[in-house]
Amino acid sequence: MTAENPQRGLVLVVEDEPSIADLVRLYLSRDGFGVHVERDGSAGLAAARRLRPVACVLDIALPGLAGTEICRRLREAGDWTPVIFLTARDDEVDRVVGLELGADDYVTKPFSPRELVARLRAVLRRAAGPPGGVAQPVVLGRVTVDPDRRSVTADGVPVQLTSTEFDLLAHLMSRPGRVFSREELLAAVWGYAAHAGTRTVDVHVAQVRAKLGAASVIRTHRGVGYAADG
Amino acid sequence: MTAENPQRGLVLVVEDEPSIADLVRLYLSRDGFGVHVERDGSAGLAAARRLRPVACVLDIALPGLAGTEICRRLREAGDWTPVIFLTARDDEVDRVVGLELGADDYVTKPFSPRELVARLRAVLRRAAGPPGGVAQPVVLGRVTVDPDRRSVTADGVPVQLTSTEFDLLAHLMSRPGRVFSREELLAAVWGYAAHAGTRTVDVHVAQVRAKLGAASVIRTHRGVGYAADG
DNA sequence: GGGCTGTGTTCGGATTCGGTAAGAAGACCC
DNA sequence: GGGTCTTCTTACCGAATCCGAACACAGCCC
């Protein structure tokens, strides 16, 4: 089950669908990772403890033990290995990220394997970065975004955003001043294989602006895209 | 079968329906891609190996060898050329992307050729790796250009440029001293399919100069084109 | 200086772009 | 099954922007 080639470390993949597991293994090993695959939840948890991988890719729906459960048990035991979830539907995302679990990222099916690799690299970069470990809230002008709690405040007042709206705002504020094209935002927030029209971005931006009111932080760059004020 | 014009590289299209193939060829070549078309699966696979295209557009349902199969064989052979699938029905999508295959994106029929081109560009951009993440601001004389923020300052004072004006200035300043002809600038800033007259460049140069004022950086090379001061 | 070519500048119509509202589709909860 | 919430699409409108023509001007050659 293990493809050893760990120039970049060993990644644990827990996925019961063989075709998906093979694909993920293919792409990860191509990228220089060692890969170890388990097919059910309990074996996955055991492998995580035994092998000490640099990161875990967990399907949510697993026989034996759900991916979420694996993550939670790891965290309880003080294991903060980066975890990326594979989720079947967007709906699961809210529960998944940050709320119940210490997940670091997630990828929704159908996903491009390239995307998974890209996110894995990003997660590892992040984990290696600031020693703080915990994601810091981002403050910009009168707006604060807390990626951990997925909460937003404007002038200290909590603002209720939907999942998509939050991801959009958080992504813009992750790099203040940086201008993102609509395509970039679609890729980052909606996912690589998203097939929404680019005007969809506009509508969601408008929604976020309305909810933030006068504290709004999103600036339009005509002919290009959007950016968070810096 | 091959339309050679590959300023942007060669794209392999495998599609048995001639009308669709022609349409795709038309749009891709208009966008500056070279296009090679094959009509059945085995020939497609052979062409992919022989021609080493920058990307493949594969119909799923193909005589001889399914598009999915072509993709899988390429991957197995260590060929990671980006692949976009053409799928007839939405239902196939779940199975298609990432699940069974190493596809990078997909387009469902009936599709807009524009969308296909847009997705192809996105995929190539992605495959080229992260765009450097943080682009460094360019300083030349009294003018600073920050590609990330799409902001310009002259003597430290922010200057408001429109999208086209910014792209023009940024392109000139990306290679200080290099003289660009009007045609080159049209191609680079306006795009390959630009049908604007070359005098349009003059007008925009004038506009940029006016906004930069005394700090202006653009020099005219009579009979040739424009350059940023070096 | 006189022509000639190439460039600067101005300006209005045409086009494109983004904000907004309204509604359809789907998921979820009760 | 009805109601609610979220997401995505579409249509419309005002405004920013672009384009190209027209004209004025500057440099080059004789």
Break the fold down into its secondary structure elements and pairings.
Two copies of one chain form a homodimer.
Chain A: E1 2-3, E2 10-14, H1 18-30, E3 34-38, H2 41-51, E4 55-59, H3 67-76, E5 83-87, H4 91-100, E6 105-108, H5 113-128, E7 138-140, E8 143-146, E9 151-154, E10 157-159, H6 163-174, E11 180-181, H7 182-190, H8 199-212, E12 218-221, E13 225-228
Parallel strand pairs in A: 2-3, 2-4, 4-5, 5-6
Antiparallel strand pairs in A: 1-3, 7-8, 8-9, 9-10, 11-13, 12-13
The first copy, chain A, binds a DNA duplex (30 and 30 nucleotides) through helix 6 and helix 8.
Biggest β-sheet description of chain A: 6 strands, mixed
CATH fold title of the largest domain in chain A: Rossmann fold
Count up the domains of chain A: 2
- The residue-averaged pLDDT of chain A reads 84
Instruction: Please state the overall shape of chain A, judged from the principal axes of the Cα atoms.
Output: elongated
- CA radius of gyration of chain A is 18 Å
What's the arrangement of strands in the largest beta sheet of chain A?
Answer: 1-3-2-4-5-6
Strand content of chain A: 15-25%
CATH architecture of the largest domain in chain A: 3-Layer(aba) Sandwich
The ordered H/E elements of chain A are EEHEHEHEHEHEEEEHEHHEE
Alpha carbon gap, first and last residue of chain A = 48 Å
Q: What is the oligomeric state here? A: homodimer
Q: Regions of chain A with pLDDT < 50 over 5+ consecutive residues?
A: none
CATH top level assignment of the largest domain in chain A: Alpha Beta
GO cellular component, one term (chains A, B): protein-DNA complex
DNA-binding region (chains A, B): 135-230
Domain OmpR/PhoB-type (chains A, B): 135-230
Domain Response regulatory (chains A, B): 10-124
